[in-house]
Amino acid sequence: MTLLMIVELIVVLVALWIGARYGSLALGAISGIGLAVLVFGFHLRPGNPPTDVIYIIIAAVTCAGILQASGGMDWMIQIAEKMLRKHPNRITLLAPLTTFFLTILVGTGHVVYTLMPIICDIALQKGIRPERPCAIASISAQIGITCSPIAAAVVAFSAISIDNGFNVSNVQIIMVTIPACLLGILGAVAYSWNRGLDLDKDPKFQAKLRDPKQYAYIYGSNATTLDKKIPQHSKNAVYIFMATLVVIVFISVCQMFGVNLLPSYKNIAAVSHVESATFAEQSIDTIAVKSFALNGKDTLWLPTERDVTQAEQKGLSIEHVVDTVTIAASSGAAGSNGGNVNIDAKKLVKGGISIDGLTKTSDKPLSMNIVIQILMLTACALMIIFCKAKPKVAVSGPVWQNGMVAVVAIYGIAWMSNTYFDNYQAEMQTLLGGIVKDYPWSIAFAFFAVSVLINSQGAVVVSMLPLAYSLGIPGWILLGVMPSVYGYFFIPNYPSDIATVNFDRSGTTVIGKYLLNHSFMAPGLIHVVTATICGLGISYAYHFWFGLY
User: What whole-number distance in Å separates Cα of residue 79 and Cα of residue 166?
Assistant: First the structure.
């Protein structure tokens, strides 16, 4: 690792650290400063912004926001509250399971805000230390992101994996992550069950109760959604949302068994491990092409008049063929190399050109990320038209607002990270190749470390997964360690964790004096370690025992 690489890495880490301190939109905005320093200061080639992930998040968050505006979210919370109040003695177990499955259904962990005051209220009424269910419930709400078929992290994992030869669907991903994360939750619950002193034995809490104002603050209010009357149109919105999820899962399951229900389109792709090839001039002078690169540099986009003129200026003979252009390198022309022309496979793909040995043509079904976006937007429209969901109310709600903050964060963070890793991919392979060859599962430490700095599991997947594949790590191992992309509980600055501290009127859920000694640390670490180990085991079984992956 060169000194220049280290300096540029420090730029990335400093930008992430400063962004995390300011939080919210600053995460993405300050990453833009880091990107500017890398591009303009160190002249690194800009990476690609994670547009596919951003589109998915926008679609899913918009749909969840519309669901909230319709009142459907209130009904789901109400159902959850009824279950929790029915079994108050088991609140430490049921609360995290409830927030976990709500996140799976909705695709965002921000649903916890409405439910958390209820969890705290139930715990106080039963004399249970609120820290026990509240901390793990907040953790579980974020854990569910890696288990939702519509969440950005899952969709991004599938799309990037397919591009790297590991064909795994959303359903196949959650077949690993859901059982692994459930086991992680159970491990954290086991730790939390008797965590800390009972309220009647806690001297700090008892001292608060001796103050009438504190007593009234702690026990004087009753958070509930049960007094809300849910209209039928709100319930209909939930039915539309759930039907959309069922369709998405059904399509994915069908794909698992080789049944494709989606339309297919002609697709031209580069032949694996072939970037370019050299052809004799006479072998290409009758090939009608839209674009290619000569000797890896002079890229032509034809047949626009401007491009034709530029090509002629470079000494290339131009012959129009229907609506395309035939290009031949004349003797001694630019790009001519002893009668040979070098053609770039990637440019041919972009131009829609098929040449044996460089590209291959096949029918490719519509990708699931496009399907999810279409279905989510359709569900939004149906809820607006038939369920009285007001768009203005949706964009002012916490689900949509926090989701858009995540979009900006991913936009800046992932773009900056991709820029760094794309420019030093070969060096990273040399630096980490030996370690991951012997211990491929060790990539989980890198995923977790990046997540500590980035408050987005989707951004971690987009930033780190291409690097992981470039290091030669098998897809089934990367799927197994996917729970490790959740690490932003480590520094307690995430909105749901801060909100949980504020919702706990007892004061038992805390951010410690030394920052890292907070209520979320132990259950978070227990979950990540347990879920990652279990995920590896489950993925191993699917891969070697059942041959599914």
Answer: 39
